[in-house]
Amino acid sequence: MSWLLKALPYVIAVVLFGAWTGLTYHIASKASGDAVRLEWQAERANNARAAVDAFTRTLDAQWQMTESLAARDAAHAKEIERVQGEKALLKRQLSTGAVRVSVPVRTTTCPAGGNTGAAAAGQPAEARAELDPAFAADVAGITGEGDEAIYDLNACIDRYNEVRDRINALTRHGTTSAQSP
Fold this sequence. Notes:
The chain has helices at residues 2-96, 133-173, and strands at 102-105, 127-130. By secondary structure, the protein is mostly helical. The model is unreliable at 117-121 and 176-181 (pLDDT under 50).
């Protein structure tokens, strides 16, 4: 038993050393796992923050675009109202005869052989025929509708270009996608 008493401090030291080593290994591995987990969580938080920032930029751009398009639509509505007013005024003036419309016509008769003047010089006198006021108003109405269609088409093209430019600006600004583990 004496050898057991002599070896007891060494056995206790080995057991304590083993316990200490096991404890430090356990704490180190847990700390290492926690560090990896914290790094992964920090990366996820950064990705989430970047996604929120991108979403915020997108919403801001959408509100700006909505306000800009609303202003453009209001200006377009005023322009159409102006064109319709001009068209109605011209139609009234044509219907009442305040404005007269005439068109050039060809004469079907041959000039006399001895006539001197503009016809002899190669510049025939221009013959004109006046349009019926109702017909002239109808023609003006058709051309007015064409003008409105052109204004509508130009407004549509302007809206398309504005939306395309804003979307291109957003995509050039960069996109960030969140990563998962």
